[in-house]
Amino acid sequence: MPPMSLARMAGRWLPALIMMVLIFLLSSLPASALPYFGRWDVLVKKASHALGYAMLALAYHGALPRSLAPGYRWLTALFMAALFALSDEFHQSFVDGRTSSLRDVAIDSLGAAVALSGRLIYSSTSSSNASD
């Protein structure tokens, strides 16, 4: 198998980079700039955490080399998402009115794990594994 071109590799990592920048920018907003969703506020915000990190984990999974064993690729993408969640919570501790929370890291990691598990199940039951 010929080595991947730099442009192709950059293209595979672009979705992950976009998600990381987006998460960083949203985490940089002071608490006073965040919308309030009334009685649904906590649910909407925690679900947004899970969804954001689900998308990040899938982007990492798509960027990692296809030559990795599926389980190793799954674990690597999950580890990368959890590590970014930890770094983002640390970053958030410096933002006005925001706090860092290991509970949010757990929610982020759970979102990532659910998305990656869905991806793994879908790709193993799909008749076309060419996109894996």
Unreliably modeled segments: none
First-residue to last-residue Cα separation = 16 Å
Q: Helical region count?
A: 4
Q: Please report the total strand number as a whole number.
A: 0
Mean pLDDT across all amino acids: 91
Order of helices and strands: HHHH
Largest sheet: none
Q: Rough shape?
A: globular
Rg from Cα: 16 Å
What share of residues is helical? 55-70%
Hey, roughly how much beta strand do the residues contain?
under 5%
Instruction: Name the quaternary structure.
Output: single chain
Structural class: mainly alpha
Number of domains in the coordinates?
1
Summarize the structure.
With 132 residues, the chain is mainly alpha-helical. The chain contains four helices and no strands.
Question: How would you sum up this structure, described in words?
Answer:
The protein has one domain (6-125). Helices cover 70% and strands 0% of the residues. It is an all-alpha fold and 132 residues long. The two termini are 16 Å apart. It has four helices and no strands. Helix 1 (6-27) runs antiparallel to helix 2 and helix 1 (6-27) runs parallel beside helix 3.
